[in-house]
Amino acid sequence: MFSRTTLQAVFFSLLAYSSALPSEIDTRATCPDIHVFGARETTASAGYGTAGVVVNLILNAHPGATSEAIVYPACGGQSSCGGVSYANSVIQGVAAVAAAVNSFNTQCPSTKLVLVGYSQGGQIMDDAFCGGGDTNEGLTDTRIPIQASAVNMIKAAIFMGNPRYIYGLSYEVGTCRAQGFAPRPSGFSCPSGSKIKSYCDAADPYCCNGSDANTHQGYGTEYGQQALTFVNAQLAASGTSPTTTPSSPGTTTTTTSPGTTGVAHWGQLWRDWIHGEYNLC
After folding, report:
1. Is the confidence at residue 179, as pLDDT, over 90?
2. Of 28, 50, 244, 265, which sits 20 to 30 A from 81 (CA to CA)?
3. Mean confidence (pLDDT) of the chain
4. Three-state DSSP class for 190?
5. Dist CA 43 CA 34 (whole Å)
6. Rounded CA separation 21/12 (Å)
7. How far apart are CA 77 and CA 86, in angstroms?
8. Residue 109 scores a pLDDT above 80
9. Single GO molecular-function term (predicted)?
């Protein structure tokens, strides 16, 4: 297991490397108009986890859009995910989000990007997109690790059950009037807050102070269509409108895998290298 100091050194070396990745494709011919990044919750199997509900809604509404899952441990010390501590999983996850987004944006600078994070997946996307550090998990650097050009192309970000939730921020939705177990500090303001919707209800024990774990797993069903409406509005403001009628939150569609286009395939090769070199879960 890495120390926090080692993990943060790895974090910034990956970011520096990702910004220098060569382009091996003709971006004009292969880049999609929209690309969605999804990050799963703690202990969910590799892939999108519950974030997949909203990811699929977006893909159904925008044929031709592509997507990929963030590769990170999504662990909280459980043996099922390699015993990686929650703090180390978050630090690795923030680095993975930044590396994936930066790499894709470097290769496809005109593609509009959407972030969808669930629970711990919301936390790592929040940290990567808004900066400010995450002292709860040992991430002390407050800089935004996603490069400025990529931040500009992120048109919408959806966080559901995010432990960083704290009541009072402009982009929060739901009945929670308290905070999660890893809240943003009082007075925090995300520079890209107008692009975010963060969903949390009072009964949730992770993003709020409730006691019903089932509430934590239900945001895709409860707020999926509302989240899609926000994403569509953000994309429309930048020149892209949905072309199909959205399916219900429970509909399962096949998302575009990272290996189906030149852009996504290179991104997957990059993350596979990280996985082997740094022994990530």
Report:
1. yes
2. 265
3. 84
4. coil
5. 28
6. 15
7. 6
8. yes
9. carboxylic ester hydrolase activity
Residue 89 has pLDDT above 90, yes or no: yes
DSSP string, 156-186: EEEEES-TT-BTT-TTEESS--SB-SSPPPT
Catalytic residue among 13, 119, 170, 248: 119
Residue 125: what pLDDT?
A: 99
Is residue 261 predicted with pLDDT exceeding 80? no
- What is the rounded distance in angstroms from the CA atom of residue 71 to the CA atom of residue 275? 8
Q: Which residues does 19 contact at the CB level (< 8 Å), separation at least 6? A: 102, 106, 147
Task: State yes or no: is 45 an active-site residue.
Answer: no
Q: Say how far apart CA 20 and CA 13 lie, in whole Å.
A: 11
Q: Is residue 232 a contact partner of residue 60, using CB atoms and an 8 Å limit?
A: no
Mean pLDDT of 257-277: 36
> How far apart are the two ends of the chain, measured CA to CA in Å?
11
Domain segments of the chain: what residues?
7-19+26-278
Fold (CATH) for 7-19+26-278? Rossmann fold (3.40.50)
The arithmetic mean of pLDDT across residues 8-36, rounded, is 60
